[in-house]
Structure formats: C-alpha cells, structure tokens
Amino acid sequence: MAAMTVGDMIALFLKDDAPIRIDAFDGSSFGREDAPLHLTVNNSRAVYYMVDHPGELGLARAYLQGDIGSPELVPGDPYEVFKKLTAIKGYTRKPNPAGLARALATVASHGIRHPEPPSIEGPGRLRRLTEGLVPHSKAGDAATVSYHYDQSNDFYRLFLGPSMTYTCAVFDSPDDTLEQAQQRKLDLVLDKLNLKPGDRLLDIGCGWGSMEIEAAKRGIHVLGVTLADEQVAWGQEWIEREGLQDLAEIRLMDYRDVPEGDFDGICSLGMMEHVGVKHYPAYFQEIYDKLKPEGMLLNHQITRTNSYVGKSAGPFIDRYIFPDGELASPGEIETKIQNTGFEVIHEENLRQHYALTLHHWNANLAAHWQEATDMVGEPKARLWGLYMAGSALNFELNTIQIHQYLCVKPPEGHGASYPLRPWWTTDRSAR
C-alpha cells in the first residue's frame, strides 16, 4: 500500500475545487496557488493532533502550538482567515474507507504518537469529575470561573481597555469607540433598572467592577460578587481610588451565599453562561427571593439561536474557555424566568453589538501583541485571539445571540406598577 502525502490526506476531505491552498511540511500541497485562502501545515505534530482528535479540538491544539498557520494570519485577530474558512463548508466530502485506511496506515508507519496537548489546556469533563468538581456545584463553579478569570489583570486590560468591562457593549454607530459603547451599556442597564440614589443593587458576576463604579457615582449602594480573586483585588482598589467605599463593595462570594436581601435591583451580565441550564430555575428563584416587591432584574446572557441544538459547549470551549459552560435559547430562558414568578417587561437581542465589541477586543490584542506574548506566552495570547475572533464570526452568522431581559418581581396578590412606556434611553442628554 503506497504511502500518502499530507496533500493526499487533505484531498480525502475536500473537493478539488475548494477555495483554499494548503502547503505541508512534507513538500506536498492541496489546491490551486491563486486560492483566496492559504494555510500551512508546519510539522507532523499537527497531523497527530488531528488523528487523535478530529475536529475542533485537534485543530485548536495545532493552531495554539503554531503547527498550522497562514501567511495571512494576524494571531491577535484571525477573524479574516476564519471568515474565509466558512466558505470551505460547501466543499467538504466524506472520505472513502479505502483512502482513510491508507491515510491512517501512513501515519502509523511513522510510529504511533499521542502528542501532549498545549500546557494551557484545562482538564476535560471526566477528569474534572474525578477531581470532585461536580458541574455547577459551588466548588465546581469556583474552579471553572477561576480558570477563566484568574489570569493576569494586566493581560485582560490589553484588550478590554480602560473600562475593564468583559461583556457586550452597546453601539449607536459602528464608529463609536469601545469606551463610548461600554459606557452606554452600563448606562442602559442602570437606566432600565430605574434605580435612584439610595437604592440597593446586587451585581452577580461583577467582573472587575465597572458597574460598581458607575452605580456608586449615581448614589446607588452596590454590592458586586465574583468567584475570581484577581477581579476582587482589582475592583476593590478601583473603588478606593475613586473614593466610593461608602457606596460600593466587591466580595469574593458565590451569589447563593449573599446574606442580604430586599435589593431594589439585581443585574447579572455575562454570568449565566456558567450556571448550567438545569440550574436556571434555582438561579432565578435565588434572585427572586433577594429582591423586594417591585424590584427589578436585568439578566444579560449569551444564548443559542434555537432550542433544538445541544446546550453544552464543544470540546474547545470546554477545555480552554468556559469549562462546563452551557447556553439555552431565548425562549427557554424567558420561560424559566416567568415560571419563577417574574414579569418580563422587555427583552432585546444585542447580537450585532457583541460582534462589534469582539472586533474591538481583537484589534486591541493585535495592537499589543508583543506585550501580550511577553506577559502570558504566545499559546495563551493566540487562544484569546482565536476565541474572540471565532465568537465574533458566530455572532455575525447568527449561530449565537445575546439577550437582555428586564423583569420585575410583582407584589403578592397583584401586578407590579411601572411606567406605561419604556423609561430608559441611550441618549444621555435626554435623561
């Protein structure tokens, strides 16, 4: 049986007219030279990664290690390469069994190898379970949140910018700066919650404290909770620097352990991705119990576009970004909210806004690429570029969305009272 080149192996999976050129370390190639996208397979480890884990996990491992690449690739912002890759979907084919057998025999003839995954890869679901990290238990959530957020605060600042706000911004125009759009998002949340000076706000999954700063500047008493030590340190220092200690506080605490109640408002921005779909009823009940009658909830979360796809993240996201992360559809989430007893006043989809936000973050990372790689190493810097660019593309393709739900807790025995028409506006001069 004749050995196959890497180019031959690729031809098993792609049609001859696919709009891509791939050049491999063994001197072989696939595709025409004038193809709109060029990729390189730089060493044999890339092949072994793909044999071990065909699909997104094998590709991710090879990319993070620099085993596959492209002359067109900007590591901090690989969006354009990813966008061109979406055109390849229509040119894939199922490999014939004989060809697949030849390919595997060729790989085996060089020795059976299982290269180590990149050192930044987290454990899979089974290993987390054997370590006692039950998904969405308090211990499990603390470990997975820490895995994502307890990186270097300075690294996050490179791409988040001075607002240190790691959730979808709100744009009036694509020409808005990231800082303008993030300020508009904070204003929108607080305006929707209709809080006044002296009111009490709980911020679940508060991040680095941007909401605490903005709420306290309005005279609102705000408590933020997070499971990430690095965020607490940053946020508390920020609060003290602004002289807002009498109004704002950040605690290292699970939202389920907050002893206070009777809040006038609760917000949760980008935290629900960590909760787990089967835990949604308990999550919303916990919030419901912590609000006073006619208190409001602003829940802001990434969603699936529809309800008939799986809820769990794929292996790449699970091992590298959000372990145990799950997404549900907008309708499923709203049903859980209303079944808890909330009245949903308003809902909106900010899908396009998140794509714009991610493009800004990628541009910031690319602009600070050398500093980023010096700080955390190239594989981890590549990881965040990969994750953000891929997410931007998925928002644009409407594979995922992000929804805000504004809800009120009705007083016992009758409906809540609130203004007849929406009272919030993104026009600050009109407030």
TrEMBL record:
Q: Which GO terms describe its molecular function?
A: methyltransferase activity
Alphabetized UniProt keyword annotations: Lipid metabolism, Methyltransferase, S-adenosyl-L-methionine, Transferase
Q: Which Pfam families match?
A: CMAS
Mind telling me which Gene3D superfamilies this protein's record contains? Vaccinia Virus protein VP39
**A GO BP annotation:** methylation
Task: Name the source's superkingdom.
Answer: Bacteria
Q: Do the record's keywords include Cytoplasm?
A: no
Q: Which CDD domains match?
A: AdoMet_MTases (cd02440)
Q: Does the keyword Heme apply?
A: no
Q: Name the family the entry cites.
A: Belongs to the CFA/CMAS family.
Q: This protein is called what?
A: Class I SAM-dependent methyltransferase
Q: Which organism is it from?
A: Bifidobacterium pullorum subsp. saeculare
